[in-house]
Amino acid sequence: MTALITRDELKAGMDAGSVTVVDTLGGEYYAKQHLPGALELVLADVEARASVLLPDRDAAVVTYCSNPACPNSGQVADRLTALGYTNVRKYREGIQDWVEAGLPTEAA
């Protein structure tokens, strides 16, 4: 099971530049709105794109999707862990929580 990260911990890591954020919704959802600096990586593309997007398998990576009901972030996190990534956490509350807290987002 993937370790969780809180909104405050995630924001602190983003502000410090110490975490890579991965949007697991992809497509039009990513284009419309994503966390600042987030990389787009959906489950179907993990094997093909992870090593290019995330070359350091020991770097801090945080996956997120829309909200706690969305399975994408956990699936991508599990796949990354299976591929040898050692520091993967999941922002379970997702972009819905981020937006509701009044935090900024970006569009593609």
Q: Output the number of helix runs.
A: 5
Strand order of the largest sheet: 1-5-4-2-3
Main β sheet profile: 5 strands, parallel
List unreliable stretches of 5+ residues: none
Q: Please give the number of β-strands.
A: 5
What general form does the structure show?
globular
The string of secondary-structure elements, in order, is EHEHEHEHEH
Indicate the structural class: alpha/beta
Q: Proportion of β residues?
A: 5-15%
Cα-atom radius of gyration: 12 Å
End-to-end Cα distance: 31 Å
Helix percent reads: 25-40%
Output mean pLDDT. 97
Task: Please write out the topology.
Layout: E1 3-4, H1 7-16, E2 20-23, H2 27-32, E3 39-40, H3 46-53, E4 61-64, H4 72-82, E5 88-91, H5 94-100
Parallel strand pairs: 1-5, 2-3, 2-4, 4-5
In short:
The chain has helices at 7-16, 27-32, 46-53, 72-82, 94-100, and strands spanning 3-4, 20-23, 39-40, 61-64, 88-91. It is α/β, with parallel strands linked by helices. Strands 1-5-4-2-3 form a five-stranded parallel sheet, sandwiched between helices.
